[in-house]
């Protein structure tokens, strides 16, 4: 599994997939920068008049509903419908779906409009979508992870998609295959955008590999491992310094880092 993950990360850097991101305004710059450091090409194209034409150029589409205004929502639906028609992978990040009822209306419309390749959220969001009791505080998960594997699997089977739940332990499943990733650091909870960045990376990896289970595992591991190496690179690490080093370690991540430091458990 680690060899396959390393191959995907190498392929991203070789192919430079073009990732269209319709994402929230709080972390849009973080998503663009982490994509560049990963080896992908970010395109923050979200104008309603442009997204359908742009869909023909992209490798994948990332939709994050964190700060969704009405025009952005309409653009997301149009982009998803066109990308789906062109068989481009779509990653949906259901930010704050458990806290704001309107989010569920948007998610339902997107699921009806397009074939969603991956649903990537924190553990609380994923459990909420699956109909379990997920605990969230605004956009953050405060869930203890109990029952998360079954919630992920049931959601994946319901929508015929891959589900990736991030938390202290990350879970990825296509409804049959399941893995848990144990890379990461608590420092990722002290900066804005860690989950959004992981979602953008998931779209990049999906753009170079048709096995969305493996590609999602590669992206989530890359995010956790870059954070882990950044946190371990200094004593008395502080959030601002950590944030800068996160980008540096994503940029410098090697195949050897994945093979030696990757921690994955296949269930």
Report on this model:
The protein is α/β, with parallel strands linked by helices and 267 residues long. The chain contains 11 helices and 11 strands. Strands 2-1-3-4-5-8-9-10-11 form a 9-stranded mixed beta sheet, with helices on both faces. A hairpin with a 4-residue loop joins β9 (170-173) and β10 (178-181). α1 (2-15) crosses α9 and α4 packs parallel to α5 (101-113). The two termini are 12 Å apart. 55% of the residues are buried. Residues 134-144 have low confidence and may be disordered.
Query: Strand order, biggest sheet?
Result: 2-1-3-4-5-8-9-10-11
Strand percentage lies at 15-25%
Q: Can you count the beta strands? A: 11
* C-alpha Rg (nearest Å): 17 Å
Tell me the distance between the termini: 12 Å
Q: Can you tell me the overall shape?
A: globular
- Give the SSE string: HEHEHEHEHEHEEHEEEHHHHE
| Uncertain residue ranges | 134-144
The description of the largest β-sheet is: 9 strands, mixed
Count, helices: 11
| Helix-and-strand structural type | alpha/beta
Q: Percent of residues in helical segments? A: 40-55%
* Global mean pLDDT: 94
């Amino acid at each position: 599994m680690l060899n396959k993950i390393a191959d995907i990360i190498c392929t991203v850097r070789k192919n430079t997939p073009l990732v269209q991101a319709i994402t929230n305004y709080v972390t849009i710059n973080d998503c663009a920068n982490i994509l560049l450091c990963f080896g992908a090409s970010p395109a923050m194209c979200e104008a309603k008049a442009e997204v359908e034409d742009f869909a023909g150029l992209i490798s994948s589409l990332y939709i994050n509903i964190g700060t969704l205004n009405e025009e952005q929502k309409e653009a997301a639906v149009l982009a998803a419908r066109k990308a789906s028609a062109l068989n481009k992978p779509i990653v949906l990040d259901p930010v704050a779906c458990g806290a704001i009822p309107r989010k569920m209306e948007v998610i339902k419309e997107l699921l009806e409009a397009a074939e969603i390749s991956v649903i990537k959220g924190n553990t609380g969001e994923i459990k909420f979508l699956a109909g379990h009791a997920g605990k969230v505080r605004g956009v953050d998960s405060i869930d203890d992870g109990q029952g998360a594997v079954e919630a992920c699997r049931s959601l994946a089977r319901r929508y015929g998609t891959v589900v990736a739940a991030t938390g202290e332990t990350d879970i990825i499943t296509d409804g049959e295959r399941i893995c848990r990733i144990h890379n990461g650091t608590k420092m990722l909870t002290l900066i804005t955008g860690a989950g959004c960045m992981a979602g953008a990376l998931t779209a990049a990896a999906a753009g170079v590999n048709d096995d969305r289970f493996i590609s999602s595992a590669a992206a989530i591991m890359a995010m956790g491992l870059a954070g882990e190496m950044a946190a371990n690179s200094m004593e008395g690490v502080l959030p601002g310094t950590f944030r800068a080093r996160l980008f540096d370690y994503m940029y410098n991540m090697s195949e050897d880092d994945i093979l030696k430091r990757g921690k994955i458990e296949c269930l």
